[in-house]
Amino acid sequence: MRSARRARNPAPADIPGGDDAPCSWTTERILALGPTTDLATAAAILGISRSAAYKLAARDAFPVPLFRAGAYYRVPTAPILRKLHLEPPPVSTADDTDTAGADEDGGHSGADRDTTGCSPPP
Fold first, then answer.
1. Contact between residue 67 and residue 58 where contact means Cβ atoms under 8 Å apart
2. Considering only CA atoms, which of 122, 38, 116 is closest in space to residue 76?
3. Of 55, 73, 83, 115, which has the most beta carbons under 10 Å away?
């Protein structure tokens, strides 16, 4: 008698440049996250699975510094850029009088808002 279970068909390969192409993290996309991001997004940027990221964070072995805010982990984006050997943004000083770095929210970073169109894997 044959089993009721069906064999799984492999998923089709992603086509580069297609609508189903996986997200690619660029310096601009990482900077758009704001000064910090959540652990799942940081893991996706670094190429770590979400479950492995939480295990590493619990052992204080995550590849970049992070901090715990209540029940959540927050990861600064500057160490992520350094870990990936990408150029961090220039630091503005109090002497700067122009508003070139301010965004339309009046300077708020929007750290909890992903405007990049790339969400972390479930």
1. no
2. 38
3. 73
Task: Note if the pTM is more than 0.70.
Answer: no
> Alpha-carbon torsion 27, 31, 32, 33, what sign?
positive
d(CA 42, CA 80): 8
What lies within 8 Å, CB to CB, of 25 at 6+ separation is 44, 45, 118
How would you class 66 by CB atoms within 10 Å of its CB: exposed for 0-12, middle for 13-18, buried for 19 or more? Answer: buried
**What does the pLDDT look like over 48-57, one tens digit per residue?**
999 999 999 9
Report the run of H or E that residue 50 belongs to, with start and end. helix 50-58
